[in-house]
User: Fold these one by one.
Assistant:
Number 1:
Amino acid sequence: MPAHDPHHESVETGDHVVLIDGSAYIFRAYHALPPLTRSSDKLPVGAVAGFCNMLWKLVRAKDAQTGFEPKPTHLAVVFDKSEQTFRKDIYPLYKAQRPDLPEDLRPQFPLIREATRAFDLACVEQAGYEADDLIATYAELAKAKGARVTVISSDKDLMQLVDGLVRMYDPMKDKAIGAEEVFEKFGVAPDKVVDVQSLAGDSVDNVPGVPGIGVKTAAQLLAEYGDLDTLLARAGEIKQTKRRENLIEFADQARLSRQLVTLKRDVALDVPLDDIAVVEPEGRRLVAFLKAMEFTTLTRRVGEAYEIDIAAVEPDPGLKAGGGETALLAAGLDPDTRETAVPLEGAPSAAEGLTPQALSAARQAQATSTPVDRSRYETVTTLARLEEWIARATALGLVAVDTETTGLDPMQAELVGFSLATAPNEACYVPLAHKGGDEGLFSEGLLPGQIPPREALAALKPLLEDPSVLKIGQNLKYDWLVFKRVGIEVGPYDDTMLLSYVLDAGASPHGMDPLSIRWLGHTPIKYEEVCGKGKGQIRFDRAPLDKASEYAAEDADVTLRLWRVLKPRLASEGKATVYETLERPLVAVLARMEARGIMIDRQMLSRLSGEFAQGMGRLEAEISDMAGESFNPGSPKQLGDILFGKMAIPGGRKTPTGAWSTGADVLEELAEQGHELPRRILDWRQLQKLKSTYADALPTYVHPDTGRVHTSFALAATTTGRLSSSEPNLQNIPVRSEEGRKIRKAFVAAPGHKLISADYSQIELRLLAEIADTPSLRQAFQDGLDIHAMTASEMFGVPIEGMPGEVRRRAKAINFGIIYGISAFGLANQLSIPREEAGAYIKRYFERFPGIRAYMDETRAFAREHGYVETLFGRRCHYPDISAKNPSIRAFNERAAINARLQGSAADIIRRAMARMDGALEKAGLEARMLLQVHDELIFEVPDDEVDATIPVVREVMEIAPFPAVALKVPLKVDARAASNWDEAH
DNA sequence: GCAAGGACGTA
DNA sequence: GTACGTCCTTGCA
């Protein structure tokens, strides 16, 4: 039926068939995109604009493009024809509850059809069938010819189509939907989606399903019984009474639901598949349409692409404002409620009709071309002006945000002001609590010309929480917490620091200043220039307002510019999934963990501090006795002089700087030779460490209001993807020594609660078995063997039963050595054996496990060739010095690269678990809250009576964390325990 | 007052 | 042999 170009070619292998769910697109676009109206007559055209931008991107994609690669060869926009479908015949209530169309959406339906024709693309609809059935049929035909299919929609009803050749694409989120996403939604693979829907039903479409069964239960049942028919046949076996009865009673309703949700894949198509081939649009006709719509940016782009003088083209007379039927469509709309037309700039998905590669190259080139002009920044002093900025940001759907505060700790610092940026050089600072000038009786007065913070924040809150406006920050976790403390939960968001981290971890730093210098060629104002440094440093709220304002506005401006450069690289370098699944979700997750904090027993620590001090005093007396003089045992320099100078003990080593080495390993050796002093020093150092770093320091971190300790987790601090923790570091709380565990005991659950510690057992060794594909190691894990003993047995031929501890210890050291990128030198050091012997061990190990040598060789070669390695989940860790001429630097980088694949993959897995954990706990109706992460361990605080219910949920989330992105052959094992303090829970 | 080096706590 | 952060001393400004 479409007036379509007859020069089609038939579909064949390698072709790419794109099917757009037109009706669904309009609804999504209407709700997700900022409202946009044609300026001359206020005709609402937001969805049409988004649609045209998308089509342009599709038909002009020159190269591979995420989600649309390869370039579409065939494309159809598919619509629902009418209400009456075969499903209504089966079940009259089907889709009987659809609300009426919003007034300003209705006129966009015919315009979308017009747009499709203007692009010379097929517009398909067929009586008696829903768009979904037509899409399913086209997909089926295309697959049969070996073509790839992309369905542009995020409708869950279409997810049953996903398979190796068919994927979906969510045009609003700019995100591919594959088997993984389907699994995340339904808990089953795509081929079981229909079964889940048949059981769970759908209130929106009025699909009945089985009462009492939701998606989660359905997925669980299907995992157990395989498929719907088997489940219904064996329903009698189900333990839960109500569930069993319902499944038996409503079995027929489930089968009816299956008929409703199963898409018809064999519709007799009015428009054959071959007829939807993509052809080059007729430029002038397209321009005429776009001009009539008044989409100036896209009109210009299309004009340039086809070398058409757009001024010479008349707008389509049937569609232009006041000129045709569309004017009538707009009638009845209240012009005052319509937004003025704003071009969709900034967002790469909507703006530029380019491939990701071309876009990121263009953005990079542009980045330096508009110099930062601080004179264009504005200091906002009135609510009215602020509201104008907010309106502008809302219309754009995009804004960079930065907070200025009184300190560096987001849990304590007070908000002083915030800045916004909407385009390069288009930025403002909104001071809220700057002080100075007049002194009040007890405190300094606020400077005049500041909006009352409550009013400003009340105006800002809807913007920062608006689901259709993307907030962009640099290290956004900080700002997220600051805003959270004033009652604003920021979202959705992007973080430029994390973008940089995903793209360049190990290659360059991710702080704003270095990023600005590198990508924008611009050096921002230094904080010291505003507030001074050292002793003379003043708080931001006391800084001169003009300087403060420039500084703050520039931060937002720079952040926005960085986003424009970095965000497109995500797609062009294939790292969008890493960012979306491993980075972005962690911002809010970690912010919440930090805000919760953990309780410590200060009395216990204070008592310990006294004990440690006593012990140190005793040791100091003995030490000076033995040394024959009093000296500072905390000074390695003085100690070295005593031991190797005055006492002339032989066998001393030197540090790289030429000083005597007095490290624990050296002192340990001396102690074993019978020297008493080194033993005392070691004991003293242990107490000194425990006292100063833990017993004395931790209480100083207790928050005055919450009474708890709030660490700060860094998301972008390591090369491998691990988190880090600081101020205080709660990832290095002692556990190995008896004395140290007393510190750990002081980490306690709140009254009426327990701490649960859940940790992955041997995760890096398991990943070694997986990545290096070593069947014997894998088998050992599957059989639940003692992996170190098994290694020893393989290497030395000693039976596991009755194995001497020393033999196992050596194997364990070798296993760890492998993870660390083993060297004979390091292993020899660790085991205190000659280097030759260590070398022999390694040789034997590689003979027994040849796959691991291959893994290490491959990793070295890959890193050498590419300058980076990748984890199982695609995270990149860069090692720019991997090809250094200096052999020891090179070897160091090789070991680090070998380690990074394992450490990084483990880090990815726990990140995935953490990203899902809050939701899983909530879904299970549990009060448990995640407090800490220690690389392979998660710590929760749980009400006493929920401990037993929480542990299985936590364990499940952690153990299946790699799935479905990666299906490990090696099982993951999680140990979890609860107690009232961390030591006993661990 | 600050940076570097050494030492040591964790995974 | 990997990955971190913190405390203390030292040496220089």
Number 2:
Amino acid sequence: MTNKNVFLKKLCMTRSEENYIKIIFHLGGNTSTLISTNAIAEQMATKPSSVTDMSKKLAEKGLLHYKRYQGVTLTELGVKVALSIIRKHRLWEVFLVEKLDFTWDEVHEVAEQLEHIKSEKLIDQIDALLGYPKYDPHGDPIPSKDGEFLERDKQLLSDMPKQSIGVCVGVKDTSTPFLKFLDKNQIALGNTIKVLDIEDFDQSLSILINNKKLNISHQIASNLYVKKQN
Amino acid sequence: MTNKNVFLKKLCMTRSEENYIKIIFHLGGNTSTLISTNAIAEQMATKPSSVTDMSKKLAEKGLLHYKRYQGVTLTELGVKVALSIIRKHRLWEVFLVEKLDFTWDEVHEVAEQLEHIKSEKLIDQIDALLGYPKYDPHGDPIPSKDGEFLERDKQLLSDMPKQSIGVCVGVKDTSTPFLKFLDKNQIALGNTIKVLDIEDFDQSLSILINNKKLNISHQIASNLYVKKQN
DNA sequence: ATAAATTTTTAGACAAATCTAAAAATTGGT
DNA sequence: ACCAATTTTTAGATTTGTCTAAAAATTTAT
Ligand SMILES: [Mn+2]
Ligand SMILES: [Mn+2]
Ligand SMILES: [Mn+2]
Ligand SMILES: [Mn+2]
């Protein structure tokens, strides 16, 4: 067991603290970019004053660097914690889809709860049961036990040129309406998509998927990730 | 969906409230027996004054009957809530043992967390995945979705007469030391036990299990449930 | 450079769940 | 029936995480 994992074990984090760390990570706090109080407040659906209070507490605990009026960045330890929560969230999502017949628009809400369960054995066994999956149902990468993960080579469908071909590998928007729309139009991860045409007027696309022609708006295309075929 | 299940859905219960309801049920609050403030405090590892506060809140919510200085009993709704938590707890315990290779002494701690996850679909799918089990790893019955469950025909091994035969169906003590002791001596649920002799001096038993003779103390026998063979 | 707008922090309050200490009610022994 | 012991409740304080309103710092615009 690494030295960092020992710290992880001793740290006792409340559910609220864990949610702050996770959201700061998603806002880019893993790099040295400073994350603003307001940005965190918006994501947490809370007030900036609450964020300030929590930032002080998390800095005290060694999870982030906080300078008044500047913003925060995660410490190395903070990144570790963030990755461990994201790992749990995404593994539970896979579990729900693979083992319990959940649809990909139902899993997020439940995973938000399950990600806070404290048991190292539990999540490692779930990982094993699932065969150590690399990606969650939305195409997002699952960090390994020691925090490693590969960001996939992907781009937005809306950034693909005419006549190019790609494989659908993820979604940017994970809202139920968007995912239901994809289901209705039989667009799923793994499908091959060819961009037939892009309309000058509104950037809407004509694509070939499942051997069928389909017209989709720019907004749809800008929320679908594909891996370009060379 | 029954009328009561509709109530269950609307009720939003905190983790602490759920734990109080569960413990009151286990103390016998499903009958009309009054449960004392002190008894609840002891089980909850909290102070009587805290129990009084919570009793008022839960009575306000319609989950229990509370009369000052008298004690509490669960309402019909309170019993429903208790059974739904116990159902979740025990199903998760089965899941951990059957699907994730947990041992029967490891499951309780994790189930204490998992029992509070809010998702009807989640627990119903776990139930289905497990093949609708009737008993948990410790031999305790699992309430069905609508709160029905059979208490098993069982008695303590220490209450069995000489020469009688029974099948081990449950444990009274679920502590790790006791369960580890049973593992070490290869005593498991489902095993047939014959009482060969009972020592007058200390009530220790000589039993036949797995075709081997074994001596166990009265304390061990008084924490093992068996179903008597006719 | 100064003023205006925005962001962030502070100060003080609140709800939930807990605690301690003291008061009130109940129970039990004689 | 009385006193003493026990149980239970009340009153007031504490911690966590949040809020509002006001003050302070920073950023943007003129
Ligand atoms: Mn998610
Ligand atoms: Mn996801
Ligand atoms: Mn248990
Ligand atoms: Mn059990």
